[in-house]
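Sequence in, structure out. Go.
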Amino acid sequence: MTLSAIAHSNAATAEAAGSELAQSVTKDLHGAQADVLIVFASSRYDYPELLQALSEGCKPGLIVGCSSAGEFTSESPQISSACVVALKNPEMKFSAGLAEGLQKDRKKAAADLVSSFQGLNSSQYVYRSAMVLIDALAGFSDALVEEITLATGGMYQFFGGGAGDDAQFQRTHVFLGTKAYTDAAVALEILSNKPVGIGVRHGWEPAGAAMRVTEAEGNRLISLNAIPAVEAFASHAAETGQIFNPEEPLPFFLANVIGIDSGGTYRLRVPLGVNEDGSVTCAADVPVGSTVHLMRATEISSAKAAQTATESAIAQLNAHPPKVAIFFDCVATRLRTGKDFGLELQALENSLTPAAFVGCNTYGQIARAEGQFGGFHNCTAVIGIIPD
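Output:
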């Protein structure tokens, strides 16, 4: 049986927030020590101070988490806040790993990340899962997910996201214990004999003709159909009656993301800015030679995607009731939908009740599970559900 506690704070200081969250967790767990505490926190907080207050206040076995760009629980979405979920289950086993130097060597980072995984050499538990949190601003997130899959021999399913910094896109952190790291990733291994459900959906559809990526370097999209990327966006704006200002492109980009065709499904990439040479910087890489569309979505389709992802994850629990869910969605989705982002959270609550949820807005989402659309995503709802 899983014991869980969820808490949310917008206290003015990191120490006050940590103390408030720890007190709430201790109360809800009736004084029991959590096996793991998962933390999502705004960039306005001093992370070591926050984590130290949490550690001293409720003494969990493990602390993992990341900086975020919007935090939420079953009760309400907030920004510039901190939230936690504490988990305790004698029938599950948790361990945590850290990898640094993502920019230098993804293969080594993946090996370091999974070196603490205890399920690689044990058959005691039927199900092997991990929540992975990445400093996405370090780049190469898609490559790291691939390397982690290889390093674990395909035995694990993954969910998670890229750390945020309140939509400043300057510096993001992942947490392990009472320390915060950049150019790094953390993973929480979850071993169990009950399945952990993972769902992923995005609710976007093609809005323009297919285009070929004719030149790109990492997350810099240089040309589509052999013309500068910025011209392709301008042409799409003209054809669809939208306003596109290359000097201030983000409003257009948030409503017209890139969909990489993966055989009938689309992995999304958010364009972020236009460079002097006409290339477009994206939140993650867009592979050369891939077929892409500019995509469209509505607040309703995004909420429906969150609902479908949740229902898919619940179905994977094999009739075990859900206890608590961890939900990740893109900061771009929140910026695009504004107050209507609450429709997504309401869809989650409707599908999960009486189970609770916690989560944050991220710079990219991670999903790798059987029967699911896997890899590193943007503008996509990803949910992991822990059974009772």
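Check: The chain has a mean pLDDT of 94. The first strand starts at residue 3 and ends at 9.
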